[in-house]
Amino acid sequence: MWTFKTGDLIAKIRPFEPRPLQTGIVIDHDNHTFVIKWTSFDKVFFMEKEGDIFKELNNSFLLSTVRINRKNKGLNLSLLSSNYNNGKEKEKIP
Fold first, then answer.
1. N- or C-end of the chain: fewer Cβ atoms within 10 A?
2. What is the span of the domain harbouring residue 37?
């Protein structure tokens, strides 16, 4: 079961390489799901340089917001940075 919480920075990792395909921030969570706002993607992998149509499609679909069920292990997600420390939210720096 995924344990991501609001504020966590996560990545969708390539299946055979330890490099991110997409990175995003968890913007909402509850007991059953969490919501990711994707903020960047691997432009070479997703054919960014192949033409304007790919750039537009990538921005529309790859930088979208998705809700994921915590039991869905089919995605290859990894925690890059957590907003929490031992169950408590980290202190905000003024």
1. C
2. 9-81
Q: Is 52 exposed, middle or buried, given 0-12, 13-18 or 19+ CB atoms closer than 10 A? A: exposed
Q: Burial-class residue 41 by CB neighbours within 10 Å (0-12, 13-18, 19+).
A: buried
Q: Which amino acid is at 23?
A: T
pLDDT digits (tens, 9 = 90+) for 45-56: 776 666 677 777
Q: Are 4 and 73 contacting, i.e. CB atoms less than 8 angstroms apart?
A: no
Q: What is Dmax (Cα atoms) for the chain?
A: 46
Secondary structure of 8-24 in the HEC alphabet? CEEEEECCCCCCEEEEE
Task: Determine, yes or no, domain membership for 14.
Answer: yes
Distance separating alpha carbons of residues 73 and 27, to the nearest angstrom: 19
- Domain membership of residue 76 (yes or no) is yes
